[in-house]
Predict the 3D structure of the following.
Amino acid sequence: MSLLERGIGRPDVPLTVTDSIVLKVAAQRLTARLGAEEVREEDLLEARRVHRIDWAQYEAARIR
């Protein structure tokens, strides 16, 4: 089996195909939990905080 695998996504942190599948499955599970109102508001606020930090880092990397 080849050890080479293409990367997709951000230029500074490319995702493998396996990574992208795991993220898609996680997103689907979260969507189901959100629909069933099984996610705490504190968790949503923390996710927003982390996303904003990551987004700022992504934008800075993209400019470079």
Notes: The radius of gyration is 15 Å.
